Amino acid sequence: MNAKVNSILILICGWLILIAILINPSKMTLATDIRFDLIGQVIFPTGFLFEETEVGGLSGITYSPDQQVYYAISDDRSSKAPARFYTLKIDLSSDTLSADGVNIIDEITLLNSLGEPFPAMSLDPEGIAFTGDSVLISSEGDVQRSQPPFIKEFSLDGQEIRSFPIPDKFQATVEEKEWGIRNNLALESLTLTPDQHYLFTATENALVQDGKTASPTAGSPCRILRYNMETGQPDQEFLYITDPIVTAPRFPTNFQINGLVDLLALDENHLLALERSFALGVGNTIKLFKLSLDAADRIQGIDRLQGEIADLSPVRKTLLLNLNTLNLRLDNIEGLTWGSILSDGRRSLILISDNNFNSLQFTQIITLAVEMEEVRKYSKKRTENSISYRKAGNYPV
């Protein structure tokens, strides 16, 4: 069977299963009126050092428009060096990203509530969001070590400020058999709405009680979790179903995965979502979607989704871009953020890869120029109706 026929059969199989799961095939649509232009990429080889510390594992990125700097979180579990995030400068002044256009200017160690670096293997930091004067960071935890996931706020010099409550259904279960997060498939993403009223995170794949991990024939039912920033409490959850793994590995026992790796909020009902599919011997497929929560069921009251999915309306996904069409060698892209506004009014979109500190991989920063109505809305909303959420009552401590 040739590769073309095989690809067609995989697509047909995935489409049929999606219909069976979602009932309504219109939940998946294709965008045709949005333009993405590649304006550059920068590669840092594995082993690159900044102030004698290896730079790598960059799983999330966020932007400070006032300071015109970016903050990127490393998923180093305090094993190569203490858990940390980096401050980056990305020069888009010429509306392009040149080979020397990214500079790391600072490294910030994360300090726990005792003012100490996090012990080795006590966290797995993955997502990051900028609040205006601090960063929010999500950790997947570690099921094998009974380390729970967390979402915490840190000052820009790394000191832990506050923690957010994590619902029980997302907690780590050592046996990983009947309940809770799956190891390394938990709270991978983090994003604030432009008005900072809401914070979103999501599981990379299904909770154990919700369903299976993604396979070449079926996606995985993830949960998107929303926090109300005025109360600091989780208030809504939504069903998100990933695509199936794009291409199966040659040998079924080889490592393979597709997951929801980052979110970028446009407003309280619309987000961008990044999915990364990987199979050993095949490589990465990276897809960017636009999400609508408008018609999605709220599922925070459902502790176990198995047996319920066929009756639920998931988040609506619209495919915006398959990054493999950019004709780049793609690494493990896991983070995205808006960047600066370009001279022609388009918005830059920054994507970053987690090299897993693997010598066969690399840290990759890709910049796209984007023209879409939601970008203009986003730019406007940043200056309207924003809140200083720490002034609100009942914020978690």
From TrEMBL:
SUPFAM superfamilies: YVTN repeat-like/Quinoprotein amine dehydrogenase (SSF50969). Transmembrane segments: none annotated. Residues 53-357 form the Phytase-like domain. InterPro entries: Phytase-like_dom, Quino_amine_DH_bsu. This is Esterase-like activity of phytase family protein. The lineage of its organism: Bacteria, Bacillati, Cyanobacteriota, Cyanophyceae, Oscillatoriophycideae.
